[in-house]
Amino acid sequence: MKDNKKYRFSFFVVSVINVGLAVFLLNASFGQISGNNAMNQRPLKVEVTLQSDSPLSIMLINVDDSTLSSQTVNFAVQNIGSKSIRAYTILGKTKASGKLLTNSFATRLFKTGEIEQNGLSFESEIIKENEVLFLSVDYVEFEDGSFWGEDSQGHSKLIAGERAGRLAAINRLKKLVKNNDFATLTDLLGQKIAEISVSVPTSSQPGEWQRGYQRGYKAVISILQRSKEQEIDFLSTKLDEMEQLANEEQKR
């Protein structure tokens, strides 16, 4: 009898939490974050395309139009499939202008039931009157190497290039540490990310792969730049951790 009471109480608590989350997301999905600069902007309406077989569920949070140059669509995605996910691509397509907006997220291992937040930015100047942006899942790559989705924008190649670029940057930085080339290391970590030149090892790969390679390479440097700790021992440990993760990804 006591066990039944405990079960009913636990079920009640979980139900309250789920209802609370649902209410929050429902309220947030109609939210519009506006600032004084956005008074003359055309509002961007957003709808989520129904994809009954998708392993990812998209939940709209709000549209931030507080700046004049762009509007950012903030959303959450939940893994509702049976497999862990290591990367995915979200596609945004406008109804009036037919403009496409995509972004790929090489995520940490994204397990079943987990939720994470992301966003897509849309240039305000190309938003037409009563514009509607439709969000959908274009590509999902699972932990075991299998995939789901049309991959209409070829972002699977960008994701593969990004992995290769991360590993190349890690190897280069580890070599600088091993050779005690602190001058080059300090100079590299001191540069602005946009100004760092990345040499792609081969031109035979498609453009999306090369773009991903450069993005992945710069991401490693950016992570180290954001670290408060810049001592060699710390950087060496951090690079070892990143290398282990990158190698595990390559094996999958």
Written description of the protein model:
The structure is a single chain. The longest helix is centred in the N-terminal third of the chain and has 28 residues, at 2-29. By secondary structure, this protein is of the alpha+beta class. It has helices at residues 2-29, 155-178, 182-190, 207-226, 232-251, and strands spanning 31-33, 45-48, 56-64, 70-79, 85-94, 100-105, 115-123, 132-142, 147-148. The chain starts with a helix and ends with a helix. Strands 2, 5, 6, 8 and 9 form a 5-stranded mixed β-sheet that branches. Helix 2 (155-178) crosses helix 4 and helix 2 runs antiparallel to helix 5 (232-251). Helix content is 40%, strand content 25%. Mean pLDDT is 78; it is low at 2-30. It is globular, with a radius of gyration of 22 Å. A hairpin with a 5-residue loop joins strand 3 (56-64) and strand 4 (70-79). The relative contact order is 0.12.
